[in-house]
């Protein structure tokens, strides 16, 4: 069998090997290897164990927080246990304020007494003990609004913006049918979302600049606190990602000076209705925080399964997922799931004795949630970068890669030797398809790779874009960056950046499937004669 023979040959010493000895046509799947991976990955999966340890022991992993430091240590220890080579932290530069919430509560004290679910907006300043004030309903969407409210908000608890209606209709847990996947409807839904993101980019810079003026206005008014609606997802899921305030509050220059607190959506809507009806509701609230280094460094956690083929081992196949999360839940679907499946994929490869010809490198990125910082830093150091506009409106865009290109690609030392970057960041759902991001030759090759995976539900390769995540960093500089179409499960309704993103959002069987499929893509990419075709 191929695996046994490969081990024996490697045992004799890789230098003596002619690489052609185990060469195979890239487009012809090695079915014995597929079967070995499926046996190990589906019957003896450790994916849920990886996830449970990260989600329950370490918990939420807000960038720069003490928990994120624990997560780096957790990842290094896991990589060591899995037998990966040279687990290490690679700096991505100073990130910002080391911060965590130690206490956040809110309750209504008039006209009724009610206890509400609440969370501090990430990097919010603390209150000085408990504070209270009249809650006022305020729409601040234009500079005219700022003029209209001038002098009226001192000492108030500002309800910032009308409540969002919860998407109450439709099922909370979604799986794509085989037909939706093979007819392309599932991917089309992703593409439609992607188009809204592209459209939003056009106004996001202007919005960012306005939010900065609005935050400065609220601070100058002397508001007691700002309260933000957490109700963008299913009822009971509080979404807490700081996007309503905008800017980069982890940097001292952009951190609002007023306390900001998220309220559960139903509570927020009740307060808003009462304020609009003239009932003058009063809120009491408190935020306590623990703050450390204002320039806390950020890291990617990196380790390898080294390639054995002397001619190919300097070429890299990247398996990536982001380690950081928001802090309202425990970052389970976003993205302990991707971390667990990625670590599990390399565990499977080691367990079946697969010896990659190219080097498989695992990178667990930091700072994804604030704008793909980890993958940007990885690419800039090793692969290359494109200078970006520093115009104020462009600087207000949340992701560096979205800023206008202002120069040609400057290649880094590993650009030529790079093969392909995989990224798993779509929650806990099983893999249903692959996005190749504008790379027809690669799409063609992957269609051959997934043909034996139909029974696992992997049915489609789409050569269109996915939503912007860490794989975009690679496609932006002309390299193959791959993401996956996954069953959404309750990612959008309950998990995404929300308080309900806990271990309960994860499916053990789905994670096992995703890890097995990823393992197959990794070893196929590592062993093909040719490096992954470039767009
Ligand atoms: Zn994510």
TrEMBL record:
The alphabetical list of record keywords is: Carboxypeptidase, Endoplasmic reticulum, Glycoprotein, Golgi apparatus, Hydrolase, Lysosome, Metal-binding, Metalloprotease, Protease, Secreted, Signal, Zinc, Zymogen
User: Which residue intervals define the domain Peptidase M28 in the entry?
Assistant: 300-519
Q: Where in the cell is it found?
A: Endoplasmic reticulum; Golgi apparatus; Lysosome; Secreted
| Family matches, as Gene3D superfamilies | Zn peptidases
Signal peptide boundaries: 1-23
Give an example GO cellular component term for this record. lysosome
BP GO terms, sorted: proteolysis
Q: Name one GO molecular function term.
A: carboxypeptidase activity
Q: What is its main location?
A: endoplasmic reticulum
Record text on subunit structure and interactions: Homodimer. The monomeric form is inactive while the homodimer is active.
PANTHER family hit by this protein: CARBOXYPEPTIDASE Q, PROTEASE FAMILY M28 PLASMA GLUTAMATE CARBOXYPEPTIDASE-RELATED
The molecule here is called: Carboxypeptidase Q
Species for this entry: Caulobacter flavus
